[in-house]
Design goal:
The complex is a heterodimer of chains A (110) and B (207). Chain A is α/β, with parallel strands linked by helices and 110 residues long. Chain A is built from four helices and five strands. Classes of the chains: A alpha/beta (110), B alpha+beta (207).
């Protein structure tokens, strides 16, 4: 998995790619919580367009990020979910818990 | 210790499907099964006139409890499901289940310790009963980690929004059979997914 960060009007977009599994989810967790808790970024966007796979440890990291953002009254926004990621969200019954948009344009306009 | 369906069961839709197809899995509980067939360590290989079930080894992987190995196993299992002509949705479900099961072994049975042995075996289950062809994939994971406590194998209510506890839920939702046992000091997790049954081709009239 690879992560690249983009700053945009005081917000941060984290572009994720590859597989998010037990090996890589700690890296994503660290980047996500760093943005939310340490940098106190008011809006963090996760671009999942190029994520091929996500497991329950990746979902757990996203939930942790969501909880942190709610505690700090910031926003965590996901977009670009492919079929595989969407399936896992549905299996976890989390698709309505997260703010999810189709693409970057919609996410940024939210 | 005999295997038991403590860690899951055949989902209701599959039970209905099996009943409609007049077929009951000979693989669910292990040991002796109907029709005089017997599960052996080499799988089921028998015939009783009306039905016959077989299992063939597809893949056997010897791994170490290193999270970096998960990607390799996912790729290998995905290929095995393609060989058996599983639909891509089912293939993803099988791969996800094996990945979650392996992650659980690494995190819980070995408590994050790397370099410990894990064996993954994939078999093709196939047979016929009452003219209906039945086919599926069986994946067995074995590890020498701490004995899993069945009381803790319940997953968690999905209404609770908190990290963790989803892997077992994914397996139960995705597979037809999820069965845990402890044998000879090893944990064994058996996952099975069946393909939809196919009636044998009949010759057109007049031929």
């Amino acid at each position: 998995m690879q992560i690249a960060a983009r700053a945009l009007q005081g917000c941060t977009i984290l572009d994720l790619s590859g597989d998010i599994d037990l090996a890589s989810s700690p890296v994503m967790r660290k980047a996500l919580l760093g943005e939310i808790k340490e940098k106190r970024t008011p809006k963090v966007f996760l671009n999942l367009k190029n994520v091929r796979y996500i497991d329950s440890s990746g979902i757990a990291s996203l939930v942790e990020g969501l909880k942190a953002s709610r505690d700090l009254r910031s926003r965590l926004i996901l977009y670009g979910l492919n079929k595989t990621v969407r399936e896992v969200m549905q299996l976890s019954r989390l698709q309505k818990i997260f703010e999810i948009y189709e693409d970057e344009e919609q996410a940024l306009a939210s | 210790m005999a295997s038991s369906p403590l860690w899951g069961s055949v989902p209701p839709w599959r039970t209905r499907f099996n009943r409609l197809a007049g077929w009951r899995s000979p693989f669910l509980f292990g040991g002796k099964v109907r029709g005089g067939r017997t599960n052996t360590k080499h799988g089921v290989n028998s015939s009783c006139g009306k039905c016959a079930f077989h299992s063939e080894l597809l893949l056997k992987l010897q791994l170490e409890s290193n999270p970096q190995a998960l990607g390799l196993v996912r790729a290998a299992v995905e290929r095995a499901t393609e060989v058996l002509h599983f639909h891509e949705d089912e293939s993803r479900a099988i791969v996800r289940s094996v990945d979650e099961a392996l992650s659980n072994v690494i995190r819980h049975a070995y408590r994050g310790e790397s370099g410990r042995p894990i064996e993954v075996t994939c078999r093709h289950l196939h047979g016929t009963q009452s003219g209906v062809c039945v086919s599926g994939i069986e994946i067995v994971l074995r590890d020498s980690g701490v004995c899993a406590d069945p009381a803790k194998m319940k997953g968690r209510p999905l209404e609770e929004i908190r990290p963790g506890g989803l892997g077992l839920h994914f397996m139960r939702e995705s597979m037809d059979e999820v069965e845990f046992s402890r044998k000879k000091g090893k944990n064994q997790l058996r996952l099975v997914k069946y393909l939809a049954p196919v009636a044998p081709a009949t010759a057109p009239e007049g031929e």
